[in-house]
Amino acid sequence: MSPTKDDGGRGIRIRGVSKIYSGTARPAVDDVSLDIAQGEFMTLLGPSGSGKTTMLSMLAGFASVTAGSIEIDGREVSRLKPHKRDLGVVFQQYALFPHLSVAKNVAFPLQQRRMAKADIAAKVAEALELVHLGDFADRLPGQLSGGQQQRVALARAVVYQPRALLMDEPLGALDRRLRDQLQREIARMHRELGMTFIFVTHDQHEALTLSDRIAVFNDGRIEQCGTPAELYERPETLFVAQFLGESTGFRGTVDRAAGVLRCGPHALRAPLLEPALDGADGVVVVRPERLELHVEAGRVAAGHNRVGATVTEIVYVGDRHQVGLRFDDGATGTATHPVGPPLPAMPGEAVTVSWDPRHQAVVADPTGSSVPSPAVEVTADA
Ligand SMILES: Nc1ncnc2c1ncn2[C@@H]1O[C@H](COP(=O)(O)OP(=O)(O)O)[C@@H](O)[C@H]1O
Ligand SMILES: [Mg+2]
């Protein structure tokens, strides 16, 4: 896990936090530790049921912690009531007061804090400007679209300048186009406010687009935490490789001394491996845009890995071609090819697939089969 900047105790420190709901045996959140720097955009990404909402609820104070500690700006908060934590929260459902105007919805948290009337009007106007709803102050929530309602919820959550804004799948109820638009709005708000944002999603594209760092949740634990590029280029587990982006995986056994992964007839170059992987079942994972296709095997660069394959299909998806591959042992995978340059081969033709080992990741194979199965397809969003 990456360390955070030293900013004099500001930021959020989560230490050994677990949650076991009463009447259940398995922890919903299992010994999670995470530092979130002041001003950081941190995303909790994972499949449904992986513990993201539970983690966010414990941060916000809506769920108690079973074990562990949560510090916000140097203060232990895990036993404090939600309103004492000074956090803004936005959920998937808009949760606006339907009988109050937009302005009154946004004013509500300020009235609760007993702010002077004149100050409230100024703060509300500022917050509505921030979400570009200055002209909608007198409307009722029912007179707004879903995207606009969610922007009101965002304005209401930041109007009292909380220490952080917590969002749980805030775009989940919106259609694709609105979601993309609001994603950009949230990124802009983050830049303008400089506030810590903690964002929960199961959508890998949303996470990659928005985040400074992403914590990937699986079964109540953090599998890996890092920048979008670190997670995409250097996944540390097969789960992370599969959950973020597409990849082709080659299963085999690691021979660390020889610097290779042995799979069937192939010995794939895999230099500089972790000692823990030696002799273990491993998977060489390669992203589709790193695979090169050659009709003549002689064209493969020295030092690159190579595997024989047949092109099964070519699908034009607008900004690129997706090239389906069947490797010599029968397993499948995908490469991408840019639009413009001629296609290297057509369906049914044999190719040599190659890649630079610096652009692969080698991860432990959790299925650990003793029967080597040279190549497997690994797809996103299983
Ligand atoms: N109130 C609850 N009581 C019992 N189990 C719960 C409760 N809320 C969530 N869970 C369980 O905790 C696990 C994590 O759930 P959740 O935090 O909602 O995951 P996510 O938000 O990643 O989908 C799941 O197995 C879920 O069924
Ligand atoms: Mg959830």
What does this structure look like?
With about 375 residues, the protein is α+β, with helices and mostly antiparallel strands. The protein has two domains: about 10-230, P-loop containing nucleotide triphosphate hydrolases (Rossmann fold, 3-Layer(aba) Sandwich); about 245-380, OB fold (Dihydrolipoamide Acetyltransferase, E2P). Helices cover about 20% and strands about 30% of the residues. It is built from eight helices and 21 strands. It has helices at about 50-60, 100-110, 115-130, 145-160, 175-195, 205-210, 230-235, 240-245; strands at about 10-20, 30-35, 40-45, 65-70, 75, 85-90, 165-170, 195-200, 215-220, 220-225, 245-255, 260-265, 265-270, 280-285, 290-295, 305-315, 320-325, 330-340, 350-355, 360-365, 375-380. The strands form four sheets. It has a six-stranded mixed beta sheet with strand order 6-7-8-3-9-10, sandwiched between helices. Strand 9 and strand 10 (about 220-225) form a beta hairpin. It is elongated and about 75 Å long.
Strand order of the largest sheet: 6-7-8-3-9-10
Global structural class: alpha+beta
Hetero ligands:
adenosine-5'-diphosphate, magnesium ion
Please give the number of β-strands.
21
Proportion in β-strands:
25-35%
- What is the molecular shape? elongated
Total domain units: 2
In CATH, the architecture of the largest domain is 3-Layer(aba) Sandwich
Give the overall average pLDDT: 91
- What oligomeric assembly is this protein in? single chain
Q: How many H/I helices?
A: 8
At the first level of CATH, what is the class of the largest domain?
Alpha Beta
Radius of gyration, whole Å: 25 Å
